[in-house]
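Progress against Task 2.4 (sequence-to-structure conversion) is shown through the following example record, which the project officer requested during the mid-term review.
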Amino acid sequence: MSENSMKKLIVGTISLILAIIFFGGFAKDFIGGIFDFSKLTGQFPDWLKTSGGISAKGGFLFALTLVPSVMLALGFVAVFEHYGALSAASKWLNPILKPVMGIPGNCSISLIASTQSTDAGSSTTKFLREEKEITHKELLIFAAFQFSAGALLTNFLSSFAPVLLIPDKAGQVAPVSIAMCLGIIFVFKIFGANLMRLYVKKFVKEDEE
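Structure tokens generated for the chain above:
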């Protein structure tokens, strides 16, 4: 490997690590969360909050709340790509993601983003497809992974994790750990992706890519 290629790989690896930290929620408590995607997207005021399904107006306001996170995700992915994060991801993570799910390593940033935000995951995956970083078949497999239990960290920790801490009449708390629950969800997401992998291998033609 030439000296120039080595420098690009080092810069790309640093960019990849920063992308994983940014989208993965690892810096949410660092300096008020200024380096965390979910904190930077923020929240709309109470009068704009809606369940998204009660009326046309409610649906529009719900869709409006998706715009900032999608724009922010696409902007940062473009920055990380400029500094070689996708190339570094392909080199380091291809040996893991290819055999496990049949997708390239450059999907890793979108994979991490999708655990916190369905909007960020879908928008960054769309970016990869438009830039021809992934094929149509890989897009279908990756979409199957993201579709099941989308934003698993955010949704599980905010909706279901508190249930594990509620004691029963005897005062006993659920013996199952949060980490075990998240692990089971993640394993079955991978299982679903491989079901789609089998489907596209059998039924999706090469010329559809």
